[in-house]
């Protein structure tokens, strides 16, 4: 069976980064195609007609969409190396729960910070409070474990570590320090960054900040 | 598996029913505990501290939360009557539609909670969701899962049945047979399937409940 793997991606997307990390962990060779989100390719629109979003993994011509679903797919297809999800059903349910929490809540508070730039005083404080509430919950779940998955880097770690590339941008605009409030999260980040798959995937935080500033101007938030 | 299985639920909740359907289809016995959502039990809050919601499935004392995550857990623990295909690609497709139901289904739940402009928006969202599923859903099979009910049927079934309730409540027809023929046929197959038919809350009772719940909310928001 030929194993043609193509990833439609966008360099700054924390969702796309999840796929690159998963593929790197599994040692899968693939073709990376960068999309211009303001001018989406015909291929992207054909492969993800419903959401028209990246990432899309195209395996032997067939598209898989939605980042966490793609990661599970990668785990099931390339199952002989480096399991990303635990084998026990209860542990798997917990992994899915926390990855889902990241998707729903972390993304939400990140969006809140985005709008925070335009907010002052009370609203700014409220958005900051919400942001750290979510981060503290995650810190609680991490506890003293080296990774969310326990001894090994896994599904939940992959789902959350990609947001790290945007930390500097959010700290700059939100005017706060994540390390000051959630030191365990930063310790976990540093541990993850020692993995080649993560270090090679995550873009430079300064580049993300530059991009975020551009976006902010584009959306008239400056 | 002789271990204790308990489901914390509420009779009005579509999310709880997804779990019930999975357990019933697989013939897995469980104890059901009805929660008063206006006065949640300490046990529920202990089992679902993050979201504080039903359903919460507790297996040998260990809780699993979020309806479709619970359904996947049930699938992996009790292999009879498989709800997911074996092929990884087919599984990814099923999970895609489950996620779609989760995200877009919000518009339907919003219909229950909202009025005025917000409700108009929710109606629009509901119609868009129905249109997408009608257009993109797999070809003429009895269920999304094929000949048998699968995980996608369970995800959408909750939305479909409760949509009927809100249509009756609001006196609107959103899910019309002529506009959504495939979906209509599918919902009929689903709600008439024996294990599902026996495990549906009464539509009239639901309408009565939601009507009074909405009136209470309106009153509360005016004070």
UniProtKB/TrEMBL annotation, chain A:
Broad class of where this protein is predominantly found: cytoplasm
GO cellular component: cytosol
Coiled-coil residues: none
Catalysed transformations (reactions): RX + glutathione = an S-substituted glutathione + a halide anion + H(+)
Top-tier EC class: transferase
Residue ranges of the TM segments: none
Domain named GST N-terminal: residues: 3-82
Keywords (A to Z) from UniProt: Cytoplasm, Transferase
EC nos: 2.5.1.18
Protein name stated in the entry: Glutathione S-transferase
One of the GO biological process terms: glutathione metabolic process
Pfam families reported for this sequence: GST_C_2, GST_N
Start and end residues of each GST C-terminal domain: 88-219
SUPFAM superfamilies associated with the record: GST C-terminal domain-like, Thioredoxin-like
InterPro entries: Glutathione-S-Trfase_C-like, Glutathione-S-Trfase_C_sf, Glutathione_S-Trfase, Glutathione_S-Trfase_N, GST_C_Tau, Omega/Tau-like, Thioredoxin-like_sf
Upper lineage: Eukaryota, Viridiplantae, Streptophyta, Embryophyta, Tracheophyta
Keyword Transmembrane found: no
Subcellular location: Cytoplasm, Cytosol
Job description of the protein: Is involved in the conjugation of reduced glutathione to a wide number of exogenous and endogenous hydrophobic electrophiles.
Gene3D superfamilies the record matches: 1.20.1050.10, Glutaredoxin (3.40.30.10)
Molecular function GO terms recorded: glutathione transferase activity
From TrEMBL, chain B:
Keyword Ribonucleoprotein: no
Single Gene Ontology BP annotation: glutathione metabolic process
One annotated GO molecular function: glutathione transferase activity
UniProt catalytic activity: RX + glutathione = an S-substituted glutathione + a halide anion + H(+)
Domain GST C-terminal stretches: 87-208
Superkingdom of the organism of origin: Eukaryota
Protein's name in the database: glutathione transferase
Keywords in alphabetical order: Transferase
EC number: 2.5.1.18
Stretches assigned to the GST N-terminal domain: 3-82
InterPro entries: Glutathione-S-Trfase_C-like (IPR010987), Glutathione-S-Trfase_C_sf (IPR036282), Glutathione_S-Trfase (IPR040079), Glutathione_S-Trfase_N (IPR004045), GST_C (IPR004046), GST_C_Tau (IPR045074), Omega/Tau-like (IPR045073), Thioredoxin-like_sf (IPR036249)
GO cellular component: cytoplasm
